[in-house]
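A quick word before the example. In earlier lectures we treated sequence and structure as two separate objects. From today on, think of them as two lines of the same record. Here is DNA polymerase III subunit delta written that way.
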Amino acid sequence: MQLAELDQHLKSHGLPALLCVFGDTPLLLDDALQMVRAQARAQGIDERTRYIQDSQFDWSRLQEQGANLGLFSSVRLVELDLPEAKPGREGAEALKRYCNELPEDQILVITGPKLKQEQLKAKWFQLLQQAGPVVQANSPERRQLPAFIQQRSQRHQVTLTSDAVQLLADWFEGNLLALDQELQKLALTDLPQPLTPQAVMDAAQDQSRFTVFALQDAIVAGDLKTALKRLQRLLEEEAEVAILNWMLQRELQKIERLQQGNLGPRDLMSLGIWRNQEGAYHAFAKRISREHLARLSRLLVRLEYAFKRDSGEDFATLYVHAVVLLCAPDKEPEFISSCYA
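And the structure line, produced from the sequence above:
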């Protein structure tokens, strides 16, 4: 079952004795739990216990819960999170016993990460699958992301133009939690709706003058000193990483396109280069070689991995490297010797 089907399934059939939710996105896992909790309240279930499996977890607690019900409840909701979806031998045996004799006075909801192929074949998972519904709560693919953003924005009572939806998809692909937080911020503004890309960008800017877009201006001008100062300020103020990454990706794309040549006024405008910026951008394109662009492209991939997959690389070092490549590529060897030594 997909997450989009869960709410209607619960309203039509009520809570099953056992329900599993596995997925790669904490936001969507939480969505599923919120649906379950709402349905529990609708069914008059007001006692809830939550466990997180670790090396010290006592699996006998699952069986003990039924004997410890409160005075006014006949059914308890129990949530069990498996952070790595690895119950181990003891856990697998406990889940087997539980599935063979599902208690009538307890609803068990098991959550965990997206399962790998070997986990899907494991006996413990097959038993869970036979005993109750299994919900998939995974991030939408890139082509599905605009529709997801439209649905999510409606939840927060935010109306977006199609271009604004595409902008948010570019910014937040792979980070739905940050997307949801941005939609919540937009819901608090008094901007006229539907929100346009410009309105979204304006709302995303810091109140200070050291914005992502001010950094962009310094990069285009090749002003390394100013760009590094603005970057430092943005990092100190914990600027939105997704927007910063998006800006750097856009500048790379602009330079690649400019170096291909044969661009008319309409082509430049489609790239977001206005008439008063044309001279600066042509100079920008001339100071960066194709070799430097290739290195910058690889560097931005590393930034994406650091942002979306927590690769462990230091954000600040990667950003400074990118700014050096864009503003003063001839200084890159000096930067590498000082920062990566």
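Notice the following. DSSP finds 18 helices and five strands in the chain. We will return to this example when we discuss secondary structure assignment.
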